[in-house]
Amino acid sequence: KLYIELESYIQTQGLEQIFKLDYFNDVLTQSGIELYNLVISGKSEEKAKIKGLNEYINEYNQTCQDRKDKLPKLKELYKQILSEKVSISFAFDIIEDDNDLINNINSYYKEFQTNVKSSIVCDFKQLIYSDLNKIYINNDLSVTNISNKVFKDWNYIQNALFEDYKKCYTGKAKIGTEKYDEQKKKYFKNLKVLSLGYIEKCIEAYDDSNKGKVLDYISNYLEDEDIIGSIESRYNKCRYILDKNYDENSKELLKNEKEIEYLKELLDAIKSIQEFVKLIIPKDRTIDVDEAFYGLIYEKYSILLDIIPLYNKARNYLTQKPYSTEKIKLNFNTPTFLDGWDVTKEKSNLGIILMKDGNYYLGILTNKNKKIFDDEYQTVSKENVYKKIEYKLLPGPNKMLPKVFFSASRIAEFNPAPEIMKIYETGTFKKEDNFDLDACHKLIDFYKTSIKKNRDWEKFDFKFKNTNEYKDISEFYKDIERSRI
């Protein structure tokens, strides 16, 4: 049956030909790899799913009473390096209207319902019968996330692993020293995955009362949290949306916040399963895994991964703002148009502020005439006059003063002495462990002198205390804050 359904794709005399040595050359190309994987995993279409060999193996295994009689699943081949994977299964196109969105969601949910939802809870229940030394968790945030979920402590599992490392340590560094910590850190950094068996062994030795809790959490999470029930509930909630017939090119959904939220909740719920299953999917697919368990999970995870492009495309579509003829964005070919009002940014942002008879007006410069105010002596009419506001802002003195006075482009202009440079670089002016009040006062004097040299700030009416009255640099910055606008 499988050969008949896939005959037009695999183009061999029989299915058994694919598993002969002579067929090896055919899987050296990406297209050959795709065809081989098609036989293994089947083909998803919009209206039906052609089963792959692994699904037939799975059906057979479900009839076996003795675990020893079960058959291992076949492994898919990796794609060729630098080649593009062209999926033969159903692909999610760009979503352009409501019909595209609903068709994509319905098509995905049908496959999810048939091949994932119906059995994934039972699959995870099989963990207790698996070889835990061949069940893996990626040694990344997956470990800390599980640790927090199970023990309400982000570092509990890590501490158990560190304790085991200490008991087994045979190196020369003294335990507790910096060198020992470096070796420990390097050891665990090189472990890309951690087996569930190893984690459970370390936890049992660390605290026997917590034995088996990680295994229990992973194997029962989907059932305990009723994740499938949650998905079904959300699906039923938005069923009327998914069954609705929309007009051609309709974008009604973009205006309906309630229905958008219902669809988002459904996709979020499915994505939560994908994120959970990802915890036990090793990034290194070359390691020896429990074939019985991962044979079930890999197949479902490949379907769960499709929620990511669907989720992203649905989000991109649903977060569009409905087209409106009531307003249009203008930027006059200037990316920073009206992005700030400082007088030094007028030509860049093309915006000025005008005043007349107590009212304020927005003025727009053109690229052609943005230098119109450069000539201070041009002749103008004295009637019907608008005053131009010259706005000056000194943002964040604690950042702006160092940025200006110690910048590479202006260091020669303000010419800080070597002693001042040392104070600035070592940070002795900051109120920290190495705070030096005398050094702080010297830097403040330098700032006072440099402010007078800076023509951009001559319009500010700065009022400073005597330098020796400042107890730290923050008091000096506050004086600038009070008069900087």
Ends distance: 81 Å
Mean pLDDT: 83
Helix content: 40-55%
Structural class determined from secondary elements? mainly alpha
Give a verbal description of the structure.
By secondary structure, this protein is mainly alpha-helical. The protein is 48% helix and 6% strand. The protein is built from 21 helices and seven strands. The protein has helices at residues 2-10, 30-41, 53-63, 98-117, 120-125, 141-151, 156-168, 178-189, 196-206, 213-224, 227-237, 239-242, 257-278, 291-304, 307-318, 346-349, 397-405, 411-414, 418-426, 437-453, 473-482, and strands spanning 42-44, 49-51, 136-138, 193-195, 351-356, 359-364, 387-389. It has a three-stranded antiparallel sheet with strand order 6-5-7. Helix 4 packs antiparallel against helix 15 and helix 7 (156-168) crosses helix 9. The longest helix has 22 residues, at 257-278.
